[in-house]
Amino acid sequence: MVFNAQSISPNLFGSEAEKVFFQTKSILILACGTSYHAGLVARYWLETVAGLPCNVEIASEYRYRNPIADPHTLVVGISQSGETADTLAALNYAKKLGHRYSLAICNVPESALIRQTDLRFLTRAGPEIGVASTKAFTTQLASLLLLTVTLAKMRHKLSAQDEQQMIMTLRHLPMALQHALQVEPQVRIWAESFAQKRHALFLGRGVHYPIAMEGALKLKEISYIHAEAYAAGELKHGPLALVDDEMPVVAIAPNDQLLGKLKSNLQEVHARGGELYVFADADSQIAQSENEHVIRLSEHAGLLSPILHTIPLQLLAYHVALVKGTDVDKPRNLAKAVTV
Ligand code: F1P
After folding, report:
1. I need a labelling partner for 146 at 20 to 30 A (CA). Which of 42, 59, 156, 200 fits?
2. What is the pLDDT of residue 5?
3. Could you tell me the distance, in angstroms and rounded to a whole number, from the CA of residue 269 to the centre of ligand 1?
4. Do domains 10-177 and 182-324 have the same CATH topology?
5. Are 128 and 104 in contact (CB under 8 A)?
6. Res 303: pLDDT
7. Global ipTM
């Protein structure tokens, strides 16, 4: 994605965008797989920064429900390929129900999704060679953050000073991602022991819960390890029964306001003899111990944190796949674009 703006404007999303954004009172996001996880992250941003109600639906299920449409709801379709049949069908269904305007966040300019939507934001991540979305995911997140900031600005939720701060934050993203990539040698060591496992649990809270979901999906897709993600507070409602020394538990533990709560969930894993693999920030108050391994990114990155915490999770899936000798670019049974 190319972002050189001095100020953030609706024009980033096409010439019609200003008119549509002024009328927008809520957001409906439709997507599948990794793109769905990007939508779940965006919901936190849209609610918190732009003060907009937001609903995120799995596109493959949406058309089997009878939701109430609202012409002031902007429908956002997210898709790397822009050819995912369920996402296209869900957008059509939303239109039929009475939703008026749609926006595509997509990587492929000539795709069906781009043709069928009113507004568009091209992520320009370059071709995704592998089947599993990786750079498409981080660019989708960056695009959704830009959308959030644009809507927040138009809704007067952002002062000029806040906007400048946000632009600085977005400009800082490439460098912050470079730093995040530096944890690769540590992740490679973890991958050796993960490759021996058959199952894994991923835990996150708040905006990092969908990041845990994406980490689990990547491990499944390219390493063929059964992985499930839970909101950490859900542990005691069932999954805790699975925890033993054969079940690695990966936790996303940034230094945010939910860290204290997350730590008490991790304590429950500890007490059952589980082995913890924690992705923390440099300033997260988390101590390494015999059964608790910690990899730290740089200091807590605020709104950018979910984007940065994606990197070590993608690296983990990648290195486990390399150790296991699976094909990282062409995982069995999966297609790049699911067009049926
Ligand atoms: C959705 C998706 C990808 C996944 C795989 C199959 O694709 O589920 O997230 O990695 O490629 O399709 P898209 O709608 O984002 O192109």
Report:
1. 59
2. 62
3. 32
4. yes
5. no
6. 93
7. 0.95
Half-sphere exposure (Cβ direction) of 126: Cα atoms closer than 13 Å = 5
**Low-confidence residues of the chain: pLDDT under 70:** 1-6
**What CA–CA distances, in Å, run from 250 to 29, 85, 147, 230, 233?**
27, 32, 30, 10, 14
Distance CA 110, CA 295 (A): 40
Q: Is residue 336 among the annotated active site residues?
A: yes
Q: Which runs of consecutive H residues, i.e. helices, occur in the chain?
A: 17-23, 33-48, 59-62, 85-97, 112-116, 135-154, 160-181, 184-194, 209-223, 259-271, 305-324
What is the four-CA torsion angle of 41, 142, 276, 240, rounded to 10 degrees?
10
Identify the helix (H) or strand (E) that includes residue 127: none
Domains of the chain, by residue range, sit at 10-177, 182-324
Ligand 1, from 60, 84, 330: best to mutate by most atoms within 8 Å of Cβ?
Answer: 84
CA of 308 relative to ligand 1 center, distance in Å? 20
Strands of the 275-280 sheet, one edge to the other: 226-231, 199-204, 248-253, 275-280, 292-296
Residue 324's identity, in one-letter code, is: K
Can you tell me which residue has the tokens 């822009």? 82
Homologous superfamily of domain range 182-324 = Glucose-6-phosphate isomerase like protein; domain 1 (3.40.50.10490)
Q: What is the pLDDT of residues 313-329, one digit of tens each?
A: 999 999 999 999 998 88
Residue recorded with tokens 């939507």: 117
Are 211 and 310 spatial neighbours (Cβ–Cβ below 8 Å)? yes
Question: Could you give the CA distance from residue 192 to residue 323 in angstroms, rounded to a whole number?
Answer: 7
Q: How many Cβ atoms are within 10 Å of 177's Cβ, its own excluded?
A: 16
Q: Provide the pLDDT for residue 89.
A: 98
Encoded amino acid at 83, one letter: E
d(CA 8, CA 24): 17
According to DSSP, residue 67 is labeled P
Which of 133, 137, 141, 329 gets mutated to test ligand 1 (max ligand atoms within 8 A of its CB)?
A: 133
How does strand 26-31 pair with strand 54-58? parallel
Which superfamily does CATH assign the domain made up of 10-177 to? Glucose-6-phosphate isomerase like protein; domain 1 (3.40.50.10490)
